[in-house]
Design brief:
By secondary structure, the protein is of the alpha/beta class. It is about 30% helix and about 25% strand. The chain has helices spanning about 20-30, 50-60, 95-105, 125-135, 165-175, 190-200, 235-245, 260-270, 305-315, 335-340, 370-380, 395, 400-410, 420-430; strands at about 5, 10-15, 40, 65-70, 70-75, 85, 110, 135-140, 145-150, 155-160, 180-185, 205, 215, 225-230, 250-255, 275, 280-285, 295, 320-325, 345-350, 350-355, 365, 385-390, 410-415. A hairpin with a 2-residue loop joins strand 8 (about 135-140) and strand 9. The structure holds ligand EPZ. Ligand EPZ binds near residues 161 and 370.
């Protein structure tokens, strides 16, 4: 099992290039099979979850071609079976997008019940409610979600809770239904808009994505397209927070600053300087941070995927802060790990009460999930001494070349394959 080993204390300076949005790319690649023509998708991040999804798409018969590290060509005309199940697909949450895509195109889909990061119970009742409203029968049997319809028919769907996954999945199925579908209380995240734009570039008729009412007029078939995925707002936010916590001056390039407004607002509140450019943001921090309160909310609120990074920042801020997690009930699993690094955090229900300490101290910690893993690396950048982050498998699900990008802006970080590598790094830095 590989680890990250980090020697803290170096400020970060320089430029970092942000890749395509993982959570948009996952949905877009699944939706790409909805036409029999060839679709080319660019700015696809080269991360583990994407590889797993592409393998599943290939296994059902679609042709998948890696044009280069970040461009994928998919042809869905060769699909022979609508049943998606393998050991790996069961572990990723985004496998559920194949349900919407296959159901929309073939009116039948069988997909392993999704897994994903363990951040709380992750039901798919809203996805199922949407498919049923469109006229499909949906059952869960033998670990598979089985959805089938003679014909999907457009309808009115109200989502009881704002859900990114359910909004996108229903949008995909409805894109090839008969008649008009209206999704109310839809998610407004940038990747919902990106998937709608992608489907529209294939000939779908989707209006209102980015607002809480999305209107879809079904079309009979979709056609080829070339599309580029939007930049990853969470990867960008993670590097912005890394600069804030470690101190320094970092230009985060290839971003859409509008998508980062909640993240930027919090950095300003804690005393960092942030400058926005057309497609970049610059974060300047002297490492002295102020306390604040934050609550995670659906977009345009503060993203739950930035919650652990925020807590790491507030852990060494001046005074007492609170972080309220309102989306997932079990997203504080990193707190015990951060405590091992000297943090003073008490969790009560869905609120973390954080008393800022002067500094973190390096320790051996486990990445409990993707974003929390990245947050622990950030803590390591600011810690005194050496931090070892185990289980970096999680981090690699969603961050491409994480350690290389950090190294390029001055971090002392290595990926170690074994204890020998670890000791080598520790000797080098001590
Ligand atoms: C997506 O998960 C992302 N995953 C998550 O990113 C992200 O944290 C989340 O959206 C919120 O932004 C992917 O895109 C693959 P939701 P998703 O449906 O779609 C409840 C990361 O680190 N809910 O918006 O699963 C649910 O329990 C990951 O990249 C239902 O009750 O999230 C939660 O409380 C982690 N029933 C809330 O809605 C449902 O049928 C929002 O979940 C669906 C969701």
């Amino acid at each position: 099992m590989e680890q990250y080993v980090i020697k803290g204390g170096n400020p970060l300076n320089g430029e970092v290039e942000i890749g395509g949005a993982k959570n948009a790319a996952l949905a877009i690649l699944a939706a790409a099979i909805m036409t029999d023509e060839t679709v080319t998708v660019g700015n696809v991040p080269n991360v583990r979850d994407i590889k797993v999804l592409l393998q599943a798409i290939e296994e059902i018969g679609a042709k998948v071609e890696r044009v280069d590290a970040h461009t994928v060509r998919i042809n869905g005309s060769f699909i022979q079976n609508v049943s998606v199940d393998n050991e790996f697909i069961r572990r990723i949450r985004a496998s559920y997008y194949l349900l919407g895509a296959l159901l929309g195109k073939y009116k039948k889909a069988e997909v392993a019940l999704p897994g994903g990061c363990d951040i709380g119970s992750r039901p798919i009742d809203l996805h199922i409610k949407g498919f049923r409203a469109l006229g499909a029968s949906v059952d869960i049997a033998h670990g598979l979600v089985v959805a089938e319809a003679k014909n999907l028919v457009g309808t009115h769907i109200y989502l009881d809770k704002v859900s990114v996954g359910a909004t996108i999945n229903i949008m995909m199925a409805a894109a090839m239904a008969t008649g008009k579908t209206v999704i109310e209380n839809a998610a407004k995240e940038p990747h919902v808009v990106d998937v709608a734009n992608f489907l529209n570039s294939m000939g779908a008729n989707i209006r209102g994505a980015g607002t809480d009412v999305i209107r879809i007029v079904g079309v009979e078939r979709l056609h080829k397209t070339e599309y580029s995925v939007i930049p990853d707002q969470i990867e960008a936010g993670t590097f912005m927070f890394a600069a804030a916590v470690a101190g320094g001056d970092v230009l985060v390039k290839n971003v859409i600053p509008k998508h980062l407004e909640a993240t930027t607002a919090k950095l300003l509140e804690v005393g960092c300087r942030v400058r926005e450019f057309d497609d970049a943001v610059r974060v300047i921090s002297d490492g002295r941070l102020l306390h604040t309160q934050v609550t995670t909310l659906p977009y345009p609120g503060f993203p739950t995927d930035m919650q652990p990074q925020m807590a790491v920042l507030l852990g060494i801020a001046d005074g007492t802060s609170t972080v309220t997690e309102s989306i997932f009930e079990n997203r504080f699993k990193y707190v015990d790990e951060l405590t091992r690094m000297g943090a003073s955090i008490k969790v009560e229900s869905n609120i973390a009460i954080i008393c800022g300490v002067d500094r973190y101290t390096g320790a051996r910690v486990n990445a409990p999930d993707l974003r929390a893993g990245a947050a622990l690396v950030i803590a390591g950048l600011a810690a005194e001494g050496v931090t070892i982050v185990d289980d970096i498998y999680y981090i690699e699900r969603g961050y491409e070349a994480f350690e290389e990008k950090l190294k390029a802006i001055g971090a002392q970080i290595e990926k170690a394959a074994d204890e020998k590598d670890l000791q080598k790094f520790i000797l080098k830095v001590s």
